[in-house]
């Protein structure tokens, strides 16, 4: 498979590949070629890809993967939300073990976030086909629509439909970046709002969902390990705060007695890093959005609006951190005679990964000489939605420099293939239980 000058992904992946990893029906060259072919869909000259959810590019990527799934012997169906489900029957009937991810991207996103999970799940089926292995239980590869949320500024659209975690009212209110409704977007895609709503699935036909994803962090890189175990998926909570003081002339208002909302907000912001570590080792809090009013160079700020993003993989400690930050904001506001308004506008339940599944993943890692690393996922994944209804597990593959959602996103082919070997071993062991 030749690589062009603009996108040398195929050659770069194979450059340092250790072909001793080609065994048990898993082939690195096939993964490299397929990552490259997907990278051509929505390729942008500045690097990376642009495949928004429900776009022609996302649909084209799905059609390509459907071809590979069919060639691997899986029976494919698609629901009204655009989710693909490809099934391979096992020796016995019953609930399936499933794996997969998504194919959409953020604008100028990387080539691994999503596609690696899809191709890992597919490669397990490919390996079985090559070796003549018939799984003990049914197996499914699932590809979710619009995971990233760049289309509607509201992610996990496909898995929310599959789990029924979105109301009809919310469906009707969604608008994309062009101002089009979800109904209009689905019609262009080849579906309808009614069909989207009917995508809710009886999840009792799934025993387990396991997802492979790039780490999007540096813990594996620092530990010099190719693959790690996700011990929980953090649930975000968003606190919207307004610090309201009094505007005044920057030159004529004495420093004593000022009611400066920005100075007060800054005092609160400076204190935030001290609180997460008091509740757990995995809690985090971030302010990435802040607005100042009236935002004039010579005006004392009257009002500051900010959003505190609070996450942890354990709901109890996440909620304790919320309370602590509210208490701190109230304390700082009262000290400076500033009015404070607080609104909790997002609160999503975290999804811990069961300890027995973590132990089984660890056994598969150790089989390949990998020292288990346990890593919380601060980002949301489709596995998070499924995890409220059935057991889920996740594997992280090492990310170079921790970069993601960026054309520089990179995981070596050695690490990608090692992740697939671990996934395959884990699934085959679960098939026997």
Automatic annotation (TrEMBL):
Q: What InterPro entries does the record tag this protein with?
A: Amidase_Cbmase, Bact_exopeptidase_dim_dom, Peptidase_M20, Peptidase_M20_dimer
Q: Which UniProt keywords apply?
A: Hydrolase
Q: What is this protein called?
A: M20 family metallo-hydrolase
Pfam entry (one): M20_dimer
Coiled-coil portions? none
Lineage of the organism? Bacteria, Bacillati, Bacillota, Bacilli, Bacillales
Q: Which family does it belong to?
A: Belongs to the peptidase M20 family.
Residues forming the Peptidase M20 dimerisation domain are: 233-335
Q: Keyword Repeat, does the record have it?
A: no
Q: Which Gene3D superfamilies match?
A: 3.30.70.360, Zn peptidases
